Automatic annotation (TrEMBL), chains A, B:
One of its GO terms (molecular function) is DNA-binding transcription factor activity. Keywords: DNA-binding, Transcription, Transcription regulation. InterPro entries: HTH_LacI, LacI/GalR-like_sensor, Lambda_DNA-bd_dom_sf, Peripla_BP_I. CDD domains: HTH_LacI, PBP1_GalS-like. This is LacI family DNA-binding transcriptional regulator. It comes from the Bacteria. Residues 2-56 form the HTH lacI-type domain. SUPFAM superfamilies: lambda repressor-like DNA-binding domains, Periplasmic binding protein-like I.
Length: 333, 333
DNA sequence: TTGTATGCGTTATCAC
DNA sequence: GTGATAACGCATACAA
């Protein structure tokens, strides 16, 4: 591949001049500039991003660490980031971390080796200290969907406790008393906080939430099916189900319908995330809107700001709150 | 950030020695090796991937160009690629190209500037010649979901004509005669080929497919809704619908159900892709299995092979064929 | 076994 | 306006 040197030779000028026309440098004669440009396209010149990154000490690229591309939730997240990197002419370096300590660490470190200047990280497996240390090292390090007090200005997160409360309150206000919960089996902070919120709402309503009414499974449709099966198997009586996310809710609905249990006639159900699925399953799913895309865009924006040395004013915080989206899966009794 | 030089100074050895221990080079004394290693972790040394790429002329990264991360189809594709890059310890550089000539071109060129050695490209907007030229320039250039005869050994693609035939044949064999088609409004090759296949099956069955029975819309759920609305508005009689993809099928089902038209009682429908959606909508969608993930993995594998100078034997080709997945959305009449 | 020197493709700082 | 030239961080051929 042609280098700047080849161009210089071909054009009969020096490296420096070529470099200037590439970067629209100021002091170049109009005719030399044209000539060099012409030769560049002729020879199919393409600047070498690696060399450039090496000398300028910046990479014009943003690293992304997320758990699992297959999950529509993460796909949405990635999309949110993509909208801003595109606007800023920044490349995305993507690493998947599958919610395992080792893999997440590896993902971040690889990105660091590439000297990305900004980084949006979705980490659930790594502990606070490790992440704080990374934040210290990398100016453009931003966490998404996680809150760590020590680096609160680097966190873009959702208030999951509020979310849990919200869904429980809606179910209770709709007249339900026997309410089951299907949650994620991954003992990360999200499901725990959501259940905390649910518990708060239950207590205020004078209800209790026994452990037997909570089923844990993988946070996908299959997990939703399994969780409902277990609930049915245990003969737990319930007219309401609070799901960890829309995928689980959809799996649960699917399974209930296979058992000819009408939704919302016999059982009401509330999801979480408001991914596309929620709108297109039958009955349409009542759920919590999780503004992932907006949050992801914010996180990318933020990472780029920090990287360029223009951090937002001190004391700002990036907490988002879910809202309820009422559709058809909850019956008022 | 600490460089190889810092380590050398701290350890009292030369650059070369440090470089050797980093790359597990052969001729290093055991105790110096240990000492250097220790210092490296102490100082938190991280090799600079840019510098390394510059000198070795290889980047250990694979570029990916796809249309739209939000689409579950592409998310699956990305996931397929990710499984193999992870195994090969290769970074993913991701660019979205949104089916526009300019954007797709830009995406590829940015990747090229980063000197990725391998590249999996999903391009629908660029013309054959442009892509052939790229393939000539980049050894590890592989196309996915597109077939160009001149570079057939760089194409991993699905036989869309066969797919179209297959879905039409199944619908016809189930006794349907009035069959409508909802297709993608993007005039890329895929929808055209699928309709070609459908036409072939129709002709063989002595049926015809008037243009009025085909509706074009965006290839998503919303498009599916609109397409069905138009069909209903035009009072086209149909008992069967062939959809461009599962998303459109799902939108169509949704809209039909809103009009209290029973599926498959009144209208049968067949999708395309077999994304998760198909399994979880109600009724479960009969559709064509599109082995995207497998194909994406193959494409990544292939790109890496070509890049490392070990191309598969000549004359091989990577055509995949869709198969039908019978579920609940088709009624035999 | 270890060290020295050179170059990868750029940008940037000087001179001219 | 233009041209040498020194970095950037690393790998490697060649010396020692």
């Amino acid at each position: 591949m042609a280098t700047i040197k080849d161009i210089a030779n071909a054009a009969g000028v020096s490296l420096a001049t070529v470099s200037r026309v590439i970067n629209n440098g100021p002091k170049v004669g109009d005719k030399t500039r044209e000539r060099v440009k012409k030769i560049m396209v002729e020879m199919g010149y393409r600047p070498n991003a690696n060399a450039r990154a090496l000398v300028t000490q910046k990479s014009a690229s943003l690293g992304v660490v997320l758990a699992e591309l297959l999950d529509p939730f993460f796909a949405t997240l990635a999309h949110g980031i993509e909208t801003v990197t595109r606007r800023h002419n920044v490349q995305i370096l993507m690493s998947a971390g599958s919610i395992e300590k080792k893999t997440e660490l590896k993902a971040i470190e690889t990105l660091l080796e590439h000297r990305v200047e900004a980084m949006v990280v979705h980490s659930k497996a790594l502990d606070d200290d490790t992440l704080i240390e990374f934040a210290r090292q990398v100016p453009g390090f931003v966490l998404i969907n996680r809150y760590i007090p020590e680096i609160s200005n680097r966190c873009v997160w959702l208030d999951n406790v509020a979310g849990g409360r919200l869904m429980a309150e809606h179910m209770i206000r709709s007249g339900h008393k026997n309410i089951a919960v299907i949650s994620s089996r991954y003992q990360i902070v999200d499901p725990i906080q959501r259940i905390d919120g649910i518990r708060q709402a239950f207590e205020e309503a004078g209800l209790s939430l026994p452990e037997s009414s909570i089923e844990y499974a993988t946070p996908d449709q299959e997990g939703g099916e399994k969780a409902i099966q277990n609930l049915l198997a245990k003969s737990i009586p319930f007219t309401g189900v609070l799901a960890y996310n829309d995928a689980m809710a959809s799996g649960a609905m699917s399974m209930l319908q296979d058992h000819h249990i009408d939704i919302p006639g016999k059982v009401s159900i509330i999801g979480y995330d408001d991914v596309l699925l929620a709108k297109y399953c039958r009955p349409k799913l009542t759920t919590l809107r999780y503004p992932v895309e907006m949050m992801a865009a914010k996180a990318a924006e933020l990472a780029l700001q920090y990287a360029s040395g223009q951090p937002p004013e001190d004391g700002v915080t990036f907490k988002y709150t879910p809202t309820i989206v009422k559709r058809e899966s909850v019956l008022t009794i």
